[in-house]
Amino acid sequence: MNSQSRFADRGEAFRSELDALRAAFPPEHCLPPLGWNAVRDFEREHGIVLPEPYRTLVAEICDGCPEGPADVDGLIPLAALPADWGCAQTQRVLAEPFPLTETWVWEDDTRPYEEIEPLIDEVSNHGSVVLGTDGCGMYWHLVVTGADRGRIWNISDVGAAPFGAAFGHRTEGEGFAGWVAHWAAARRSWFDMVV
Hints:
By secondary structure, the protein is of the alpha+beta class.
């Protein structure tokens, strides 16, 4: 069964997102897709279902692309972490809900660090897959469980903030497709994305 018939019930908007992702990630620049069996195995292993259209991207289009949205490594493979990942001491638990729904700058939090450290650890390691890094401890996450499922978050050493127009960024779309569209439209740094 091809992707057109498999997703016919999702409508033209979904097919349009997939077409845009195929254009943004040409096969000659990307890693091969995992295939549906490998994606389902990953989901079973972690007790999650990846949000669309990222799920279909990894299964049918590519499993990472060095020329992708994140500045340092591009879009990293599904099961990978960036080389500079600083949270290695804690196990990532994708099935635990991502704990935030609004921006949190822990650098400005007045609570003692010992009190907020476990919460910071949850933000970095619960309920998300890491999409890539812009270096200097700045990571892009796709939330896979919790209230913000499907949204993209930027998590750094000073705080965490969601991506999308609703949060003051210069893009109309939220989620993975909006994040990729923002990058693909201008191939520019993320540092100019906040209005």
